[in-house]
Fold this protein.
Amino acid sequence: MSTRRIGPASLTRLLGAWRGERTGPAYRQLADGLRLLILDGRLPLEVVLPGERELAQALEVSRTTVTAALGRLRDDGFLDRRQGAGARTRLPAGPGERGVTPLVAGAAAEGMIDMASAAPPAVEVMHQAYAAALSALPAHLPEHGYAPLGLTVLRETIAARYARRGLPTSPDQIMVTNGALHALALMLRLTCGPGDRVVIDHPTYPHAIDAIQRASLRPLPVGLPGASWDVDGVAAALRQSGPRLAYFIADFHNPTGRWMGPEARAAIVEAALGARTTVIFDETLLDLWLDGPIQPYAFEEPDVGLVRLGSTGKSFWGGLRLGWIRADVQTIQALSLRRSSLDLGTPVLEQLAAVHLLTHEDAPLDTRRALLRGQRDHLLGLVRQALPDWKVASPPGGLSLWAELPAPVSTAMAATSERFGVRLAAGPRFGVDGAFERFLRLPYTQAPEVLTEVVGRLAQAYARLQPGQVSARSQMGAVV
């Protein structure tokens, strides 16, 4: 397997204005900039940096400056120098375990507000959907009830939904699953074997990382830049590592809320086809645009090699536990054969309820988007007022803010917040190898009055934490 490397031009682009934002000697500013990229996960671990001479030329500094900066990072444990192999990124304590806070917990303790889970309650018409499903159920009772691909009526409904949104689809291209995570697990089982690599955007959905690792696969993270996706970084990872699968949340990304434009999608799919890698776009949050409808199907799609995962969990209700896979017919047939060793299909009643919801989706989705839009703006204003040194951008959709803290204290902040009655998922929960200690996910799925209480408690916890006194090195040891 070839070694992952980053070119001088790509590294220079990631560093940005590294000299203008810091004080002190140039070598120290450069070391600080590289250290921040590693801590934030934008520069993945086990990546070989450019040689000193070519990096000095790209940055337009002396080689002495680069040598001193890399030496400082090696002394601090952020680089591993191997004879003849170049400087390789790492963390001081070595690759550690990610935060283990479960995103979905049982009943919260009295007075505890759960902000670890980004999941809204059911839409108001959920009971009506189940009532309609019960009315339709008698027609299916004479059958055995097992349908590995899903009920025909639901597959037709999902296919028609894609067609309305600009992507012609036949029912034979659809498999109904028990949620999008189940769909991902099926794809991992079909396409990968133990030890294979899976490219992911970084940060990403924690349970997707869990699924990849528990299948004995290796997640290959490509960090997200300031905006959009690192298309060159994805292409390099595909070219250098030969992964079997690449997984992206292109629509209102969890946890950042950003959206991938059609040009980036097309470029990533083209690079993946060249590397013979299957691309998965997880569309779980596709319906939750907040700043205007966005058309995700705006480039020419390949016949094979691109798979889409859908779900009703965030759009309607997580308790419905229903999702789907859209792929070419051959892939769907192969999935059906593999699925029988795991389960024999999705419950019929839930499928009938989903038919009703997807057939009458406009009003409940409009209501959901309006509610989330107000809650997003409310939380954004509260954080900017009560925690002004936290950087928060307004995402165009999704369910959460991705807050950047001024110091790597995310794990400590999550622990401290519990004492103030707020349960959080620390930033490292959304990455691999201890990244994202300077970030927290803040869902806006709670009512405005609850969000007001949450931010008040977070401000108290942050003041108690005294982040200026916590060093990056001490916090690296706190990631468990």
Observations:
- Residues 126-359 form a domain with the Aspartate Aminotransferase; domain 2 fold (CATH 3.40.640.10).
